[in-house]
Amino acid sequence: MSHQQADAIDVEAIREEFPILQREFDGQQVVYLDNAATTQTPDPVVDAMSDYYRESNANVHRGIHHLSQEASEAYEVAHDRVAEFINADGREEIIFTKNTTEGENLLAYSWGLAELGPEDTVVLTEMEHHASLVTWQQIAKRTGASVEYIRVDETGRLDMDHAAELIDDDTAIVSAVHVSNTLGTVNPVSELTDLAHEHGALSFIDGAQAVPNRPVDVTEIDADFYAFSGHKMAGPTGIGVLYGKQNLLEDLNPYLYGGGMIRKVTFEDSTWGELPWKFEPGTPPIAEAVGLHAAVDWLEAIGMDRIETHEEELAAYAYDRLEAEEDVEIYGPEGGPDRGGLVSFNLEGVHAHDLTSIMNDHTIAVRAGDHCTQPLHDKLGVPASTRASFYVYNTRDEVDKLVAALDDARQLFA
Ligand SMILES: Cc1ncc(COP(=O)(O)O)c(C=O)c1O
């Protein structure tokens, strides 16, 4: 179906493609506000994957038989579609991984282990997800490189003066999250990339919370590497993407070895195949690639601009409603263009886990914890927060239900 309309998104029509959103527990319909963890999967994506299994399933790498030809074609074309979606130059620049985390590890192991040394600095931000923070920390320990963090200011934004101070000729790579999964902050990733390039450093952007929710153009950002996950963008679990500039990927050695990625193997040595296959050894996630392709088609039929606007409005609405509650503390910038579609907060006197459990009594799905940003929570001075995160199918009415449920928590814990 087409969702194109003159202005706003037709949320009701979209919701019909998600049977899971009709589910009820104890007579209450699910309010799904845990989209930063994983989004729901619309019927066309599920159908594309089940059609693949019903009609075309075979291993790829261009077997001779019809089914393998068909599966290989579908798998390869999915790379082209993703390249087009983020405005990469072509399939050579799109490596399918398991998720964002694997993309970060791929780069850290293949580039970082080989290139970093005691004279180098890796510059991160204080709002990095553990997927990049822990990975670079460990690679730095093994190579002797040091890790520095761009400060987050009291508004939840990056201190760009501090960034300009930290990024210097010793910087080997700047690794920054595009949209913070805790603060919701949309970071100036082009500016950070420019700073990195001015000092001959590389830039890596963690786009796990950006690609699903807003138009992303890797060429415009000029990032050297950029990663994201299928399951946060209406696609399946088990597939993610590492984008890299072709000339950089050509020079990198693979970090996983095996079949499907080689050119020539002898008992003594091996040489690698073409991009992107040299980074995709073994049987890849074929049905998942078909699903990711369908998810990209589905998102673009709605329009990434309109998805961004819808989420920005919902986040601003949630921010305003929560801010009006005197006993609620919100983290990150106020609603507006530099806040993505999520809001993390705490209710005074109630632990985030208890609050989330009370939300669950109302069948409201939100997440409690440190959201894989422990050092950032330490800095905020709280062990955990509750996060409501929105997607294209969420409504203001659902935000109202979230805010109304706070009263229960107050009554129980007052
Ligand atoms: C900003 C950010 N980076 C990385 C990740 C890791 O994604 P995945 O678990 O799909 O590897 C997440 C997931 O929550 C995230 O929000």
UniProtKB/TrEMBL annotation:
Keywords: Pyridoxal phosphate, Transferase. InterPro entries: Aminotrans_V_dom, Cys_dSase_SufS, Cysteine_dSase, PyrdxlP-dep_Trfase, PyrdxlP-dep_Trfase_major, PyrdxlP-dep_Trfase_small. Transmembrane segments: none annotated. Gene3D superfamilies: Aspartate Aminotransferase, domain 1 (3.90.1150.10), Type I PLP-dependent aspartate aminotransferase-like (Major domain) (3.40.640.10). Pfam families: Aminotran_5. Residues 31-402 form the Aminotransferase class V domain. The keyword Lipoprotein does not apply. It catalyses: (sulfur carrier)-H + L-cysteine = (sulfur carrier)-SH + L-alanine. The keyword Transferase applies. It is an enzyme of class 2 (transferase). Its cofactor is pyridoxal 5'-phosphate. GO terms for molecular function: cysteine desulfurase activity; pyridoxal phosphate binding. Its EC number is 2.8.1.7. One of its GO terms (biological process) is cysteine metabolic process. NCBIfam families: sufS. Belongs to the class-V pyridoxal-phosphate-dependent aminotransferase family. Csd subfamily. This is cysteine desulfurase. It comes from Natrialba chahannaoensis JCM 10990.
